[in-house]
Amino acid sequence: MSQILIIEDESVIRDAVERLLTRRGYKVSATESVEEAESKYDLQSFNLILTDVRLPGVPGTEVIHRAPGVPVLIMTSYASVRSAVDSMKKGAIDYIAKPFDHDELVLLIERTLKQEKLGRKTEVLKSELDKSYPVDGMVGKCPAMQEVCRRVTKVAPTDSTVLILGESGTGKELVARALHEQSLRKDAPIITVNCAAIPETLIESELFGHEKGAFTGADSSRTGLVEAAEGGTLFLDEIGELPLAAQARLLRVLQNGEIRRVGSEQSRVVDVRLIAATHRDLKQRVQEGEFRSDLYFRLRVVELNLPPLRERGGDIVDLAIFLLEKTRKQLNRAPMTLNQASIETISTYTWPGNVRELENALERAVILCEEDIITPDLLAIESTHSAGTLPIAATPPTGELSLEQYFRQFVLENQDQMTETELSKRLGISRKALWERRQRFGIPRTKKSSR
Ligand SMILES: Nc1ncnc2c1ncn2[C@@H]1O[C@H](COP(=O)(O)OP(=O)(O)OP(=O)(O)O)[C@@H](O)[C@H]1O
């Protein structure tokens, strides 16, 4: 049950709000001033604090500093909306003008609590991600990767927009995180958005937020992900998939440092550094009229090109050893080594799914390995040099199938029995890579496979 603290010196309002929220199932405490609240309760134990601004003693906004991390909603009179705006600047989550409608207040509280939960989840996810994306864990000695590392170090401390190009699974997100972690913004959030994963109809409001009534179903206003990255970095993965209308809004952010929420006439100033990535040829998208040329030029202030794994020479084995160690530690297994045959298999395979596919193959091998030596059969990839090999398949490729033909055949044969997750696992690629290849090769998902 969520715990809410009300700080309000007008007893009529305080009692009414307390009754209302208690009826709604919240555990409610109420005080007249910030000082009283502090002396009676541990402010950090609340999930939300609802406070008036003008109070006996210190102003209500002071609670923002005294209960860091706890979302604070400000109640204010119409006459002092200005002070509400100031409160927002100090870090309040939102404000509500008095006299307020009870339903409106409950709605605002529900939304804030939902965001608070999400925020906590994001923190957990962030720490998980930090574990799997150590900045110093970027393996790569080949000239192309050395060049990438040099550029990352150079460009990270600046606020320049960076465009990261590379096939799926080559480490684009890892590079984006390295850029953020080595920047002056590292203590603020990095918000990652996969533009390919958000439905086209929702992407504008997800990114830029919306005002109440902006469209059917928008029964309250909402902050977008660009604003959520305030002071930090926004990483737009698969930017090539961004619809044209959203591209126009993004251009405004890059040109003027301003966003306009959907349904709003007013712009807000934002301080966000943009990093974008794509596996697509953006120049070609521009020629096809699918991508704005002015946005393309703004994005590629600095361009980083990640080579496919098959072109990284000795890095492939270095990466395999690094990822084997990382995976076996994560899975709590004793140290393991790759035997000579495995090293040869790994070096000669073409790795169409790049580092992610290598990571998946090693994870599978670590799970299946009963002793401490990884043999080629555990990797479940074929040691042939042809580009037609794909890891683990229900039926091995017959004849001279090209990679595309083989992918197409495997997906069409299995999609009615397997979920997208199972399909991607069997192909040794991420779900996102599977989605991308479906787009590229024109194989839409059937009803069954979209389970
Ligand atoms: N040079 C590297 N050194 C160590 N680990 C790497 C390297 N490159 C990629 N990885 C690891 O490979 C996995 C895939 O990388 P990442 O998600 O950054 O790729 P991506 O290009 O963004 O992929 P996708 O396009 O599928 O989202 C991650 O677990 C990442 O940590």
TrEMBL record:
Write down the Pfam families for this protein, in alphabetical order.
AAA_lid_14, Response_reg, Sigma54_activat
**InterPro entries, per this entry?**
AAA+_ATPase (IPR003593), AAA_lid_NorR (IPR058031), CheY-like_superfamily (IPR011006), P-loop_NTPase (IPR027417), Sig_transdc_resp-reg_receiver (IPR001789), Sigma_54_int (IPR002078), Sigma_54_int_dom_ATP-bd_1 (IPR025662), Sigma_54_int_dom_ATP-bd_2 (IPR025943)
Which of the residues bear the PTM 4-aspartylphosphate?
Answer: 52
| Domain annotation Sigma-54 factor interaction: ranges | 138-367
Please tell me whether the keyword Protein transport is annotated for this protein: no
- Any one GO biological process: regulation of DNA-templated transcription
What residue stretches are annotated with the Response regulatory domain? 3-113
Q: Which Gene3D superfamilies match?
A: 1.10.8.60, 3.40.50.2300, P-loop containing nucleotide triphosphate hydrolases
Q: Which UniProt keywords apply?
A: ATP-binding, DNA-binding, Nucleotide-binding, Phosphoprotein, Transcription, Transcription regulation
Q: Where is the signal peptide?
A: none
What GO terms are given for molecular function?
Answer: ATP binding; DNA binding
PANTHER family hit by this protein:
PTS-DEPENDENT DIHYDROXYACETONE KINASE OPERON REGULATORY PROTEIN-RELATED (PTHR32071:SF117), TRANSCRIPTIONAL REGULATORY PROTEIN (PTHR32071)
The protein's name:
Sigma-54-dependent Fis family transcriptional regulator
Which taxonomic lineage does the organism of this UniProt entry have? Bacteria, Pseudomonadati, Pseudomonadota, Gammaproteobacteria, Chromatiales
